[in-house]
């Protein structure tokens, strides 16, 4: 996998954009700005996925992360009160000593990781260096045989097809487990996010308990408790 | 201590330090797997730094999303590498990435539900004020 020409230019543009947007996500004072920078970071990473010939994952990334998860984040940010943070009278980071320690830790970790990646990649090159060169030319010639799209400006890859057949052939059990996980997440988030009033209205609450709770929560007094059978 | 980390820094700056800027430029024009892995590592580290330093619980959640995204980038880069060097049909990394995205969505839904429940009870989103578990 060796990129060249315009692919290399786009690689550098999108990777630098992803890293800067990630840094600004962590450092922005306004939480909404953080969320928007995270969206741009996710979009840049989706562009990197396209450079890696994973078009389906790039689409899923944009649809699920940007269209679903980040909108959820924005709603929650607007639900909770972060005004004091935006006005600048709250410290957004932990105490200086904790911040210093974690930044030093992260710097050491990044140095170690880059060292390990370089060393490991040398091993990779030793193992299949000649094959990488041959494979780059081969994949380029394979790309040229793909069908042209309707406008003729690009070619239609078969990445989604390969990925779908492999997902249903080898990963069908994890796929079903993932659907159960999503169901659990839906039910769990509904259960977690409802108010005491909603809980009391739906559940079969003992009236005495409800009166005790009503001392803390004014809204509870208005609930008509259905007589239990 | 310094001796221990010297090889790492030597590795980091060797291309510039040895006056081999031309080779570095040549490598930069042809990014390969290691460049993608380094970008993934940097995104991961940024996420870790966000989790460790921020006080706002929502920003901590967003940093966790950044970490998961870095893992996805590594999965996909390795998948592409395997496709190029051996197995043409090696899309296992992409399948892993799909499941990572599923788990991230579920985690965000549950986590934000917890944030809303917490905000209703404690009226705060600062993690250092949420200390009721600490007797």
Lay out the secondary structure:
The complex is a heterodimer of chains A (229) and B (135).
Chain A: H1 6-27, H2 31-51, H3 55-79, H4 83-87, H5 96-144, H6 159-170, H7 172-193, H8 196-202, H9 207-214
Helix pairs in contact in A: 1-2, 2-3
Chain B: H1 2-17, H2 21-29, H3 33-53, H4 57-85, H5 92-122
Helix pairs in contact in B: 3-4, 4-5
Description of the structure:
The complex is a heterodimer of chains A (229) and B (135). With 229 residues, chain A is mainly alpha-helical. Chain A is built from nine helices and no strands. In chain A, helix 1 (6-27) runs antiparallel to helix 2 (31-51) and helix 2 runs antiparallel to helix 3. Chain A is extended and about 75 Å long. In chain A, 19% of the residues are buried. The mean pLDDT of chain A is 84. Chain B has a single domain (20-129), classed as Orthogonal Bundle (Helix Hairpins), CATH 1.10.287. Chain B has helices at 2-17, 21-29, 33-53, 57-85, 92-122. In chain B, helix 3 (33-53) runs antiparallel to helix 4 (57-85) and helix 4 (57-85) runs antiparallel to helix 5 (92-122). The longest helix of chain B is centred in the C-terminal third of the chain and has 31 residues, at 92-122. The model of chain B has no long low-confidence stretch (mean pLDDT 84). At the A-B interface, helix 1, helix 2, helix 3, helix 5 and helix 6 of A face helix 1, helix 3, helix 4 and helix 5 of B.
């Amino acid at each position: 996998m060796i990129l060249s020409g315009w692919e290399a230019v786009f690689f550098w543009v999108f990777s630098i954009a992803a890293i800067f947007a990630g840094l600004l996500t962590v450092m922005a004072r306004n939480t909404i700005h953080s969320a928007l920078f995270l969206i741009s970071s996710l979009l840049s990473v989706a562009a990197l996925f396209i450079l890696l010939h994973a078009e389906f994952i790039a689409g899923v990334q944009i649809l699920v992360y940007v269209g679903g998860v980040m909108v959820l984040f924005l709603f929650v940010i607007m639900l909770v009160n972060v005004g004091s943070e935006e006005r600048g009278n709250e410290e957004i980071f932990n105490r200086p000593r904790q911040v210093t320690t974690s930044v030093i830790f992260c710097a050491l970790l990044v140095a170690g990781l880059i060292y390990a990646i370089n060393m490991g990649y040398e091993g990779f090159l030793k193992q299949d260096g000649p094959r990488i060169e041959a494979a780059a030319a081969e994949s380029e010639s394979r790309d040229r045989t793909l069908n042209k799209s309707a406008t003729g400006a690009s070619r239609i890859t078969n990445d989604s097809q390969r990925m779908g057949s492999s997902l249903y052939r080898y990963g069908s059990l994890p796929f079903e487990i993932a659907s159960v996980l999503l169901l659990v997440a839906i039910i769990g988030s509904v259960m977690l996010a409802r108010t005491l009033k909603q809980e009391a209205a739906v559940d079969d609450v003992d009236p005495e308990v409800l009166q005790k709770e009503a001392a803390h929560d004014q809204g509870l007094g208005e609930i008509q408790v259905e007589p239990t059978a | 201590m310094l001796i221990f980390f010297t090889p790492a820094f030597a590795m980091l700056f060797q291309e510039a330090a040895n006056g081999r800027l031309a080779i570095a430029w040549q490598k930069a024009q042809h990014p390969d797997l290691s460049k993608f892995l380094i970008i993934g590592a940097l995104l991961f580290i940024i996420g870790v730094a966000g989790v460790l330093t921020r006080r706002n619980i929502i920003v901590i959640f967003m940093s966790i999303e950044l970490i998961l995204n870095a893992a996805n980038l590594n999965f996909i880069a390795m998948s592409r590498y395997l496709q190029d060097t051996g197995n043409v049909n090696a899309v296992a990394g992409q399948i892993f990435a799909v499941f990572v995205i599923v788990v991230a969505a579920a985690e965000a839904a549950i986590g934000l539900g917890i944030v809303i429940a917490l905000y209703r009870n404690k009226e705060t989103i600062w993690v250092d004020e949420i200390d009721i578990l600490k007797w």
